[in-house]
Design a protein that fits this description.
The complex is a heterotrimer of chains A (427), B (183) and C (252).
Chain A lengths: L9 H9 L2 H9 L3 E3 L8 H20 L9 H10 L4 H29 L7 H23 L4 H13 L7 H9 L6 H32 L15 E3 H26 L29 H9 L9 H14 L4 H4 L11 H22 L4 H28 L19 H12 L2
Antiparallel strand pairs in A: 1-2
Helix pairs in contact in A: 3-5, 3-9, 4-5, 5-6, 5-10, 6-7, 6-9, 11-12, 11-14, 11-15, 14-15
Chain B lengths: L8 H34 L5 H4 L4 E4 L8 E6 L2 E7 L2 H10 L10 H4 L5 E5 L22 E5 L4 E4 L4 E3 L11 E5 L2 E4 L1
Chain C lengths: L1 H21 L21 H15 L20 H9 L2 E4 L8 E4 L13 H6 L19 H10 L15 E2 L7 E2 L20 H16 L3 H30 L4
Antiparallel strand pairs in C: 1-2, 3-4
Helix pairs in contact in C: 2-6, 5-6
Classes of the chains: A mainly alpha (427), B alpha+beta (183), C mainly alpha (252).
Chain lengths: 427, 183, 252
């Protein structure tokens, strides 16, 4: 389908004969066939990689000026904000970039949930994505500790203390993480080293994610595979152009926060230097951790032989780990929610559940908020463990179109064509 | 601008318009990327609190005749000496002698009494002796570098030894009779 | 439709997390500030009066550690004026050649001088309470400038039946309503150099404007750059949309 290009430029040809980087780029980002019916939700993967590059570049510039020692960290950040040329800009980009990264990735993931992008043959692609999410969360957690504000210190204390819930080795693990008897200089220094390291591990996993994507090629809103050239358009110029539009809007959104609301998504307590002897009134993580924080705090009762604290930890990590097995939990034989009349609503209920859990995470863990959080946590796991397996069996999907290129009016063949298409999908 | 006409020129027109738009977009993209890159690079330039220390004011009042002090300016030692009449005379006499780095004493000082120069030997960067009264001053009564034996005269000029040039004079000015601003 | 709902969901989540932060204390009345909004700037005259208040009413207990004397040129002072302001203060320097520490007049490259050498001395001088450093106070409290203004003007007599702890003062807006700091501003408590009438409200507005600057001296540069960047991005996105439509014209 794609012919090896004959490079006119002799230098390009010389390099390409020895390391086919130009042929590779031509194949993967120029000629590569993309479904012609993709909507703008397919833009978010590219946006995520742009944010990753921005975070690495701004992060390296910040690392040139930052001091990872408890006596100097807070002041070195303020020095960046006040005295370093454009330091305030680089810091605000990096700080808000973290939020942007999670906004983009969450939308990217929900796109996958809605359109069944996690289903065969893209299971490994999805699982690599979950690994990326875990790495992002670890990186963001450690990064937030570095300014050494009150939330940095106490957030680190709360989350590292969680590991003490692990039976037998819990306390030993926590001491190992801390490098001492509490979150202190040893902890800060190693968090800095790891925060610098993990983004490059992330780049590697993103590479694997993209390579895996290029094997199966992209899913699309109809959830049916491309069958021929009539269903596809080459990546360039169609998706270089379209992704650029998405990038333009995204940068406007990003720039609005950086320049006009740089502290909106943050917490005022982090502008107070860390004090081990003063606990803030309400310890809250950054917004992108709130749903998981709600799940953690929802278990206030022991479950059989498992203490409440440990159960909370298990469910918090479990809420992400369960994503790994989603391709096997979902029994539906149709990918896209476009053709799944019941799942469409189930998806929205799940999304609302996640948002509600996010709100709960910001409230003190008591009263009505706690009960709502418990219901939300319960439903979260019910969605994956009960609803997804059962729904696939009982739902009658709408008839699929014969192909992507065919106008989407259900297809002329009616039920039989739909059934034939569905059978073909079960590869 | 929805073109539905089927005349033969439309394709070229469209292509031309698309090329112009693509060129404009590409051009703006390059400008945008460069505008993003500049602050990142500029952040590596000296920051405000470093620049604030790029000048230093020195009070000359406490320095007695024949006494030297050493202050730090931009991380380097600066020798400030209140020369005696004999030292000034010796420095003027040196103007006529055979110098490796010819320079008149009058060109090295703004005021004969006060000698201001960077205290790093121009050979390999050691700090020459001669600031304290008990230090060896070398054969020319000025400064002597113990590392490889460079001798400087009472104007800070190299007279003997491996150093190639005179001790450099930093930019400075007299704020008033008793104060100089270096840098 | 779907896209709109997704973005609405994202907006709702963020708005909820924002409002939760303010939930800790009392509802604070909002004021208009010269530095608010896309075109906000710091009122130079107000900041200069605020500096005077800081010097006369606050600096006895509160440090302003992140501000250097050279930063005062932001307020509209010349370098010579900043130097003169600094020279009124003494800082410790050394050790000298004898190994002793000595005091000298402050210069522009020095930080503002702390009223107490360390936290313990600060507590000892204030009945055990620690007056916090004010360099970031506007960013370090939910409600920011509005909260600080409300706090400074919010001292009142305790309502009947309130159990006031010893040495505490009643304040309408401080979380818990009991604050160790006595009312720092009083009607005509200061004689402004520029002759403005020194009502409590005026003083509060001036000190908060000064503190807002101290928390973020680069705000004006940020907003100015932001306007240029937004216009650039909007134009660029417009062009990119046109390019995309051209490219996709034959597919749709």
């Amino acid at each position: 389908m794609s012919t090896a290009p004959q490079w006119k430029n002799p230098v390009v040809r010389w390099v390409d004969e020895r390391l086919p980087i130009f042929t590779y780029m031509d194949h993967e980002y120029n000629q590569f066939p993309m479904p012609r019916n993709l909507n703008y939700f397919w833009n978010f993967g590219a946006l995520a990689s742009i944010v990753l590059v921005v975070m690495i570049v701004t992060g390296i510039m910040l690392a040139m000026q930052y001091t990872p020692h408890v006596d100097h960290a807070f002041n070195s950040v303020e020095r960046i904000m006040r005295d370093v040329n454009y330091g305030w800009l680089i810091r605000y980009i990096h700080m808000n970039g973290a939020s942007m990264f999670f906004i983009v990735v969450f939308i990217h993931m929900f796109r996958g949930l809605y359109y069944g992008s996690y289903k065969a043959p893209r299971e490994l692609l999805w699982m690599l994505g979950v690994v990326i999410l875990l790495l992002m969360m670890a990186t963001a957690f450690m990064g937030y500790v570095l300014p050494w504000g009150q939330m940095s210190y106490w957030g680190a204390t709360v989350i590292t203390n969680l590991f003490s819930a692990i039976p037998l080795v819990g306390e030993w693990i926590v001491t190992l993480l801390w490098g001492g008897f509490a979150v202190d200089n040893a902890t800060l220094n190693r968090f800095f080293a790891l925060h610098y390291l993990l983004p490059f591990v992330l780049v590697g996993v993103v590479g694997a994610h993209v390579v895996s994507l290029h094997i199966t090629k992209s899913n699309n809103p109809d959830g049916i595979e491309m069958k021929g050239p009539q269903d596809s358009v080459p990546f360039h110029p169609y998706f270089t152009a379209k992704d650029s539009v998405g990038m333009g809007f995204f940068l406007i959104f990003f720039a609005f926060f950086v320049f006009f609301a740089p502290n909106y998504l943050g917490h005022p307590d982090n502008y107070i230097e860390a004090n081990a002897l003063v606990t803030p009134a309400h310890i809250v993580p950054e917004w992108y951790f709130l749903p998981f924080y709600a799940i953690l705090r929802s278990i206030t009762f022991d479950v059989l032989f498992i203490p409440a604290k440990l159960m909370g930890v298990i469910l918090m990590f479990g809420s992400i780990l369960i994503l790994f097995i989603l391709p096997w939990l979902d029994t539906a034989r149709v990918r896209s929610a476009k053709y799944r009349p019941i799942y469409k609503y189930v998806f929205w209920v799940f999304l609302i559940d996640c948002i509600v859990l996010g709100w709960v995470g910001a409230q003190p863990a008591e009263g009505t908020a706690l009960i709502i959080g418990q219901i939300g946590t319960f439903y979260y796991f019910i969605h994956f463990l009960v609803v997804m397996p059962v729904l696939g069996k009982i739902e009658t999907p709408l008839p699929l179109p014969a192909s992507i290129a065919e106008p989407v009016t259900g297809g002329g063949g009616g039920a039989s064509a739909g059934a034939a298409a569905a059978k073909m999908e079960k590869s | 601008m929805a073109d539905t006409a089927t005349s033969p020129e439309t394709g070229d027109e469209d292509a031309g318009r698309r090329d112009f738009l693509a060129l404009a977009a590409g051009g703006m993209g390059v400008v945008g990327a460069a505008s993003f890159a500049w602050p990142l690079i500029d952040s590596m330039n000296p920051s405000a609190e470093v620049l604030a220390l790029s000048t230093v004011e020195v009070n000359l009042d406490p320095i007695a005749e024949g006494q030297s002090i050493t202050i730090v300016w931009q991380g380097k030692p600066v020798f400030i000496r209140r020369r005696t009449a004999d030292e000034v005379a010796a420095a003027k006499k040196g103007d006529g002698e055979d110098l490796r780095d010819p320079q008149k004493d009058g060109d090295r000082v703004q005021n004969d009494t006060w000698l201001v120069m960077i205290g790093l030997c121009t050979h390999l960067g050691c700090i020459p002796l001669g600031q304290k009264g008990t230090d060896p001053k070398g054969e020319f009564g000025g400064w002597f570098c113990p590392c490889h034996g460079s001798h400087y005269d009472t104007s800070g000029r190299i007279r003997k030894g491996p150093a190639p040039t005179n001790l450099p004079v930093p930019p400075y000015k007299f704020v008033d009779d008793k104060t100089i601003l270096i840098g | 439709m779907r896209k709109a709902m997704m973005s609405a969901a994202a907006a709702v989540l963020m708005a909820l997390s924002g409002s939760a932060l303010a939930a800790g204390g009392v509802e604070v009345p909002e004021r208009e500030w010269s530095f608010e909004g896309v075109f906000g700037t710091y009122d130079r005259a107000s900041m200069q009066r605020g500096l005077q208040i800081y010097k006369e009413s606050c600096s006895g207990c509160h440090s302003l550690n992140l501000i250097y004397f050279r930063n005062l040129t932001d307020l509209g002072y010349t370098e010579a004026q900043a130097k003169a302001f600094a020279a009124e203060y003494e800082v410790q320097d050394g050790p000298n050649d004898e190994g002793e520490m000595y005091t000298r007049a402050a210069i522009p490259s020095d930080r503002f001088v702390k009223p107490f050498p360390n936290d313990n001395a600060a507590r000892a001088g204030n009945n055990g309470a620690l007056p916090p450093d004010l360099s970031l106070m506007v960013e370090a409290r939910p409600g920011g400038a509005n909260y600080l203004y409300a706090l400074l003007t919010g001292y009142a007599d305790a309502p009947a039946g309130t159990d006031m702890m010893e040495g505490m003062n009643y304040n309408n807006y401080f979380p818990g309503h009991q604050i160790a700091m006595a009312p720092p501003l009083s009607e005509d408590g200061i004689e402004y150099e520029d002759g403005t009438k020194a009502t409590v409200a005026q003083q509060a507005e001036d000190i908060v404007t000064f503190l807002a600057w101290a928390s973020e001296p680069n705000m004006e540069a940020r907003k100015k750059m932001g306007i240029k960047v937004m216009i650039f991005l909007i134009v660029l996105t417009g062009i990119l949309i046109a390019v995309k439509k051209r490219v996709w014209a034959d597919v749709h």
